[in-house]
What we know:
Chain A has 500 residues and is an alpha/beta fold. Chain A is 32% helix and 18% strand. Chain A contains 18 helices and 25 strands. In chain A, the strands form seven sheets. In chain A, strands 1, 2, 3, 4, 5, 6, 7 and 8 form an eight-stranded mixed β-sheet that branches. The first copy, chain A, has a five-stranded mixed β-sheet with strand order 9-15-20-24-25. In chain A, strands 10-12-14 form a three-stranded parallel β-sheet. The longest helix of chain A is centred in the middle third of the chain and has 19 residues, at 233-251. The interface between A and B is large, with 87 and 87 residues. Chains A, B: Belongs to the acetyl-CoA hydrolase/transferase family. Chains A, B: This is Succinyl-CoA:acetate CoA-transferase.
Amino acid sequence: MISNRIRNKKLLDKVCTAKEAAMLIKDGMTIGTSGFTPSGYPKAVPLALAELAKERNEKIKINLYTGASVGDELDGVLARAGLISKRLPYQTNESLRESTNNGCCEFLDMHLSHVPHYAKLGFLGKIDIAIVEAVAITKDGNIIPSTSVGAAPTYVQMADKVIVEINTSQPLELEGMADIYIPEKPPYTRPIPIVMPNDRIGTEYIPCDIDKIAAIVITDIEDNVRPLAPIDEISQKISENLINFLKSEVKNGRLTKELLPLQSGVGSVANAVLAGLEKSDFENLVCYTEVIQDSMLELLDSGKVLFASGTSITPSAEGLKKFKENINFYRDKIILRPQEISNHPEIIRRLGVIAINTAIEVDIYGNVNSTNIMGSRMMNGIGGSGDFTRNAYISIFTTPSTAKNGEISSIVPMVSHHDHTEHDVMVIITEQGVADLRGLSPKERAKAIIDNCAHPDFRPMLLDYFNRAKEGKYKHTPHILNEALSWHDRFIRKGTMKID
Amino acid sequence: MISNRIRNKKLLDKVCTAKEAAMLIKDGMTIGTSGFTPSGYPKAVPLALAELAKERNEKIKINLYTGASVGDELDGVLARAGLISKRLPYQTNESLRESTNNGCCEFLDMHLSHVPHYAKLGFLGKIDIAIVEAVAITKDGNIIPSTSVGAAPTYVQMADKVIVEINTSQPLELEGMADIYIPEKPPYTRPIPIVMPNDRIGTEYIPCDIDKIAAIVITDIEDNVRPLAPIDEISQKISENLINFLKSEVKNGRLTKELLPLQSGVGSVANAVLAGLEKSDFENLVCYTEVIQDSMLELLDSGKVLFASGTSITPSAEGLKKFKENINFYRDKIILRPQEISNHPEIIRRLGVIAINTAIEVDIYGNVNSTNIMGSRMMNGIGGSGDFTRNAYISIFTTPSTAKNGEISSIVPMVSHHDHTEHDVMVIITEQGVADLRGLSPKERAKAIIDNCAHPDFRPMLLDYFNRAKEGKYKHTPHILNEALSWHDRFIRKGTMKID
């Protein structure tokens, strides 16, 4: 068994307990880990690290760099132990979110394609140790990643030392699904030779200098994947609106029935949107995305989607079980790439990806907030939404038109935080309808968004703001600056954006 | 003479007066023109169109799409005649700016690389007529562009009819400087084969179906280029700070003395920054930029810069004279590309361009406003700054720390319009100093920007805001929403951001 997983006998000397491996991690170090939207992240070593710090009553602090969100065994445990000084680039863990928002942990919210790129250029400082979850290590010391690739290839390349967590709960059949390609640094960068989503351009393993492998830990802790909320009526309506929009694009000759490669953000609305495709009459679809969720597997099952390229497989517990049981069916229909490639502007623009992401709020001029609630409170992070939106063939944002039982309007005069600007956002979809902003000036956009996307409870208030703003001296992007953020301020003070 | 310029005898039948050509333009049409940051734009036909409308007392309206800013003969004359219904994607003309801000003209502010891309995908509607300034038309009807390429190749490809302005003030020696390459639409797009700034990948002419050429107008009106302000003390200091920053990158091993391809925005500060390179000890530099200004020509003169790729040549009147007199020296040191290529994310990221652009204002968290003064008043537009910033090796924004005789702080609690978000901006430089934001969390950025870039008159006010914001409940991006835009509001009401 172990010889299947560790294929170089000399490496058996490196096998140790999680605690022994954790002892390599010192105060002030920067740790780069595998893991993306929580799958394929190291589990045993961070658990041991927290335990060790508690035992020794040490207040060590580390910088924790991952691919995207990771499970509670990494983010949650370390955040609660107060061990994280700085964290990048994305997270969904409740404890880490609390640490970020109460000021205990500095969080750096980055475009996911930028993370390995900047790390490689030396802009994120030295990476001391990389910790990578793997299904196996090859004879030459190369690492076969598990359910995600993320930024692990670059962290391994940059780190002084590598800790490998061999996770026996991850099937060996994952071998062959990864395609690892790390672009050279400028001026030696060459065109990335992907012209179809299913092009393979790299190796099945993460290249690793065998001498860097400092510890190998055997574990069987399963990916702590997140349950998906059932598809509610609002998500259902958003999905229908999206499908109808895509149909009209086909009708107008701007897309074919095969569409173009699809990218979809994570979460329940995103899942509903993909589920909607199942019942549509689009066919022979392909995906070039980040995360492969349940509905993507179902689309592969039915043959509606022929192929999916991503950087991680993150279904629900049930979906994961199905995936593992039918892995031979999925193996040649899925490629897992480094996030530098899955989210690369070059490839997204070349393939003409249709990008579908979720907004927290949208303003009347088409700016989108994906991250900071009421301007200051970090939710998860921008993730790959910026990589895809800026370079998409069509960039779409979905959001329910209200939140908090109707007290918050997701359409506001001005977003309280800007992640995607008016220059990048093409289409807004709520359960109310679709605003197609392509070719529209700011004032034309305002009309389209208020009329088609805002909830009727807030539509008159938005129109009132817009009309009064247009009375001002400068009418390009009409605003009343001392009122533009007053809806958020009212919510903070009174718990509602509505006026009494 | 004319046979050098119009090389197909049959096309001589198409030669007509500007007025006759202008009569092809009807109410409601969308016109796509050559021209980029004002050079190489059509002049005679728009002048005649305005005259014609006046003569006939017609109130026709057209949509005017260009490459970037164009001269007064196009933007100014048509704006003052009230003929422009919608205009994209960038402008610097006073009359057009007034039309935009008083609501007479709808202006759509776009990333310049997106313009031909979206036009080609049909997202900007039908292009009825393309008007292109040229130095010549080949035997096959292909068009040799003059001092800019811009979006003309795509407008010609998309338009029903093409009007060519042969401008005899533009030297025939410009032939050979253009390199025209239009990527196919997805799913047929292939890697753009540029790996060095001086790679030639296309044709010397804009491909044009000869039957589309509906009119040819001969003119000799010169490019109405803009004078450059002399380099003042503030620009000088910004330039010094920038050079010192680049030196420290070389010292830290993140750049070599050859640096990487440089992009520089337009205007006087940008010009000063490039002039600073002349005295530096960097060597064998190359540029991959949009606009070739005076200081770029001087850097080519001295051999400090070996090669420059751009989409337009726009020196001052004096610089233009020098360029024309020494065109044989410059011919093999400059390539003019379509703006889809000069600004393409694929190439910018591959080459590792160092992007240097000008901000109107910057906030303490590193968001940049490049376009809307006090949130609503359009200045020029985002231009290519977003294309370069997002994909740059290092993205730098420069701005004097104050404006309006010190009454406006260019560093504010929250920018009043967001063009570049915290996710994209790496370095801020004012005459006060340099804030290197790479790897910093929002609160760390605030400290760096306030300490290093803010003017001493405003530093205590910024610190006060930041410190009070940190007292709030959510500390990821601390803001006080009912105060975040109060500095702008105060300026609008009192003419100063200072507190009495």
